[in-house]
Give the backbone structure.
Amino acid sequence: MKITVVGLGYIGLPTALMFANHGQEVCGVDISESVLNKLTNGQIHIEEPGLQKELDKALMSGRFHARREVEPADTFIISVPTPNHSDTYKSCNLDYVESAVRSVLPVLEKGNTIIIESTIAPRSMVDHIYPMVEASGFTVGENVFLVHCPERVLPGQVIHELIYNNRIIGGITDACTEAGKAVYNTFVQGELLATTASAAEMSKLMENTYRDVNIALANELVKVCDELDIDALEVIDLANKHPRVNLHSPGPGVGGHCLAVDPYFIIEKAPRQTPLIQASRTVNSLMPSFIVQKVEDLLHNIAKPKIAVLGLTYKGNIDDIRESPAMEIFDQLVFHANYQVRAFDSHVQADFVSTDFKETIDEVDLVLILTDHHEFKNLKLEDFEAAASEVIILDTKNIATQLTNSDNYYNLGSLSKINTKTTHV
């Protein structure tokens, strides 16, 4: 089978390599010259465990190549971004998806399959993509097949989950669904769940909305417990001892191209029916400002304080800063006229990011942990000898467990200590 994958980002590249390394001929397409040059020279452009090994294998076999133009194929997989519009409900921007589909149509032949893996709003396949394909002279379900198969993998475990996770196969018709199943049967060992395109779209969105809503509940609990002088993390631990309760972990906000984006795609389609989803988005969107306020409370009596931000990605051990609450917090702190702010993240390559930990914390007054990278879990008090003598540590991810004995250590369970301390200063 010849497969063309359009979009070689965090999902498209691993997907293309999985097909190539399971016996298929794959052309990867991207508009970025830097991405194409790196891949052609045998280098991955994103951080993902095991991905370099998969690229090496695919190039060695000759089954994968990357180029700018779409090549004829049996199957076309669209894996491009779907950002939010800047409208009232932050609706789904289908520009990249529609552009990718248009790039496929000139080489589309009878018997081909088009699969949209990009996360899209409900009814996007039926209302937008299906008419585009039919307008080009094909009959969907008869001589071409149109499918939505949303990705559902965890960054850091993408290779494993592409193979072993269940996949939702949503066809415009039953024949489309069967065509989609035939494609993923080449390497997926999880169950292939047959459904309609619209149900597949909504299922993907609800998977992430479920998590967003439940994280919002935990984050709101943090604010309530801060007000009432109760340890929110202890409350969560106790409540989760109940056999039917599973409160999520709170944090500095919700990021990434899924949880912070997907709920809006549901909201835009049914704004009057989604007050809970909208309220949850508001709670999580305001967490960065809440954390910044706690930083201000901790530093209120220090003139021109120095702050070290540890971690800028939206989750640990990856390089992805898309929609990252850590980045929003960093930007808010930098904007503050009174603060001197540095950032450390060994996974992020940018001019404003240090990869030297000791240099970052040199003489700082406050250390703010915003990402649960593995290296932060083993931090000890002696690691902060270069910092100010009474350095304050605010751990928004509750991971630096070896620092908890310090009087100047705070996490999302002990925020009320900040109120007590600042009241008596």
